[in-house]
Amino acid sequence: MRTVTSAAAMQRLARRWRAQATRVALVPTMGCLHAGHLSLVRRARRAVGRPGRVVVSLYVNPTQFGPREDWKKYPRDLVRDQRLCRTAGVDVVFAPGDAQMYPSVEGEAFSTWVIEEELSKEMEGRSRPGHFRGVTTVVAKLFNLVLPDVAVFGAKDYQQAAIVRRMVRDLNFPVRLILGATQRDADGLALSSRNRYLVGNLRRQALVLRQAVQQAQALVRGARFPPAAAWLRSALKRRIEQHRDARVDYIEFFHPETLQAMRQVGPGAHLALAVFVGKTRLIDNGRL
Ligand code: PAJ
Predict the structure, then answer these.
(1) 193-287 — its CATH code?
(2) Residue 30: CB within 6 Å of ligand 1?
């Protein structure tokens, strides 16, 4: 396994692979890898086989964090991530520094952005202004540096995957997207690098996200008529906020592809929610 830290070197390598008609799969991450990320690596390998190449990018992208978010304290452990990638059979780890990704050349600042204007408005986009501009910009840059045939994203960040899919379509990136299933701990909590902030009994309270999705599934599947979104939302919110440290940020019901909000929620609708558990903001989602 090779670690590449320079953007130019990554692009040179990618162009060499392309000239040899070697297929390339990219798994973009912010590092601090867990079993969720590693399941995407396996999915990537399955997509390109051997002698295809699997690239994992490790980059805590500053432009997708708000000014009061955890960019500075986001956990970083390159050596551990490299070891996990080597064991998982990754070919190349791409771990650029900020100066590689956002160079300010002779005082001229970075000033070109990729902005998706429709699917980015609600949910994560509303709660985290500017977040998706950072995501689409860095993913577009990674696509241009790694030149992947395939890129793998996790269903855990459902809106993010939908937005990247729209960007690929709208800007004609020659990249096939694969959505990998959300990996969970045995008790149902979706794996996330931020779970390490859940100390003491916050960990147990964090299970409310998954439980809310399951409660919504039961209510929707058991109903004779599709329940109103507003009614369902307040039922879930009440249940979640029975936990002392849990506070709902949003609960949304929407069409799984267009992300159009739904007023009546029937089977096949998608639910996404964000909940603060203590100071940690967690997200989850599921098909109803
Ligand atoms: P990060 O949060 O590190 O996640 C990297 C990828 O892993 C994303 O596609 C995410 O959906 C997926 N993932 C996270 N938890 C998962 C789980 N429990 N099961 C399956 N997949 C999971 O998402 C980002 O980084 C960044 O926004 C990025 C796309 C890298 C752009 O900076």
Answers:
(1) 3.30.1300.10
(2) yes
* Residue 276 pLDDT exceeds 70: yes
Domain locations in the chain?
2-180, 193-287
- Could you give the C-alpha distances from 196 to 84, 162, 193, 201, in angstroms and in order? 18, 27, 6, 13
Nearest to 53 by CA among 4, 94, 17, 7: 17
The structure tokens listed for 241 are: 């906020």
What is this structure's pTM? 0.97
- Catalytic: 255? no
Considering the candidates 37, 131, 243, 270, report the single residue annotated as catalytic. Answer: 37
Distance 53 CA to ligand 1 centre (A): 20
Say if ligand 1 is within 6 A of residue 81 CB.
no
Question: What is the pLDDT, as a whole number, of residue 105?
Answer: 66
Tell whether ligand 1 has an atom less than 6 A from the beta carbon of residue 151: no
Closest CA relative to residue 242, chosen from 199, 195, 204, 286: 204
191 lines ligand 1 (CB under 6 A): yes
| pLDDT confidence of residue 109 | 83
Please say whether the structural domain 2-180 has been given the CATH code 3.40.50.620. yes
**Structure confidence by residue, pLDDT tens digits, 169-211:** 999 999 999 999 999 999 999 999 999 999 999 999 999 999 9
pLDDT at residue 7 tops 80: yes
